[in-house]
Amino acid sequence: MRILVTGSSGHLGEALVRTLRAAAHDTIGLDIVASPHTDAIGSIADRSFVDRHMHGVQAVLHAATLHKPHVATHSRQAFVDTNITGTLNLLEAAVANGVGAFVFTSTTSVFGDALTPPAGAPAAWITEDVVPVPKNIYGVSKAAAEDLCQLFHRNQRLPCVVLRTSRFFPEPDDSPVRRDSYADGNLKTNEFLYRRVDIQDAVDAHLLAIARAAEIGFGRYIVSATTPFMPDDLPALRDDAPAVVARRVPAYEAEYARRGWRMFPGIERVYVNTAARQALGWRPRHDFAHVLERLRAGEDPRSPLAQAIGSKGYHGASFEDGLYPVE
C-alpha cells in the first residue's frame, strides 16, 4: 500500500513513517523541514505541491499541523493556511486520486473550555459527545479541519477518520508553574491517568484507522491512554485526586514515595477512549499501571519507539521561558 504521511519530520509523523517503512509499506513523507523520514519538502498549503505527491496514493495519514506552542509565534492566518487550507488541499487531492482512507490527526485541545468545569463541579468526563468550545486559533483551526473531513465524507464519500490525540510530546510541560512544581517524569506519569498517550499507541490507532476507514465511513475518536477512573470518581477526583488514585491503583503510593513524587491534588477532566477501542479494535498498552510497572523494574517507561524519536521541540529556537515563547 502506498501511504502519504504529512508532517513526517515531526513527532508523530516520524513515528508513522518509521513504523510503515519497517512493515515494508511504500511510504512518502511530506514536511516543510528536512529529515531522514521526509521525501519531499514543501507546504501542504501549496495545492500544486500536494497534487504532485498524491498520485498513486491509497491512504493518507495527515499529521502536519501548527501546534499550540506556535500560537505565540505565528499569526492566526498561518494557522488557517496550514491547518485548514492545507487539510482542504489534501482532501481535494485525495478525492481526485481515488484515495481509499484519509486519517486526520486532531487534538483533544479542540474541547477547549469544555475541559474545565465550573468551580464546585465534578471533574469532566470527556467523550466524543462533549461539544468542543475552542479557546484559541489552534483549537478553532483543528475543529474546522475536522468538519472539512466530515464534509468530504458526506459529499464525496471519502472515508475519513479523525483521531483526537492527547499529549504524546516528550518535551517539558508548557506550563512554567507545573515545570517548577513537579519533576518531568512525575508530571508525565500523572498524565497517563487522564490526558497522555504513548506515541506507539497513537501510531497503532492511526494504522487501525486506515484499515477500518472504509467500514467506518466517518468517525471522530479520542486517542488517549485508558484511564483507571470511572464516572463515579469524578466528584472526588476534582478535589482529592490522591485518594481516588490510591483506591483505583493502590500500588502507586509506594513507588511515588520511593521517588519523592506527588500526585496532583486535583484532576479536572478525564479523556475516555472507549469509542476508539470499540470502533478501531485498538488496544493501547501504555497506561498508568504499565508505566508504574516499568518504573518499579527500573526501566524506561516510554515505548522503544518514543525513545528512538526523542525530543524535537517546536520552534528550532530557545526562548526566555525555555522551549516555549510567552504570548
From TrEMBL:
<dbReference type="InterPro" id="IPR001509">
    <property type="entry name" value="Epimerase_deHydtase"/>
</dbReference>
<feature type="domain" description="NAD-dependent epimerase/dehydratase">
    <location>
        <begin position="3"/>
        <end position="172"/>
    </location>
</feature>
<dbReference type="InterPro" id="IPR050177">
    <property type="entry name" value="Lipid_A_modif_metabolic_enz"/>
</dbReference>
<dbReference type="Pfam" id="PF01370">
    <property type="entry name" value="Epimerase"/>
</dbReference>
<dbReference type="InterPro" id="IPR036291">
    <property type="entry name" value="NAD(P)-bd_dom_sf"/>
</dbReference>
<protein>
    <submittedName>
        <fullName>Nucleoside-diphosphate-sugar epimerase</fullName>
    </submittedName>
</protein>
